[in-house]
Write a structure and sequence with these properties.
Elements: H1 2-27, H2 33-56, H3 64-92, H4 98-121
Helix pairs in contact: 1-2, 2-3, 3-4
Amino acid sequence: MKRFARFGLVGGVGFVVDATLLALLIHVAGLGPFAARAVSASLAILATWRLNRALTFGPGPRRQAVEGVRYFGVGTASGLLNVIVYAAVLLVWPAVPPLAALVAASAAAMAASFLGYSRLVFAR
């Protein structure tokens, strides 16, 4: 359970990195919201990889470059799952508040990413 708690803490840090960079890239650098999000999300994934490697899972058995590509792949897949679950909840149950859909989507993505990182990226 300690590992999952550290994973959740690292995810919170990743969210702060993502949100902060998104705001800076839009309001200071003048990027559009989609280009800014592509950059901020990528850098947040990089930050969470390094933090999860150091604090949650430890180094994996592969070279760091391979580990990084795998981590980015799992992160991207779990991000897509988040969007798909969010959209599905709102389409199937239109009366559900968007925030509730976000909670459900985030929980599904968090579980999927934990499983993916622990089994595909950092598994020994």
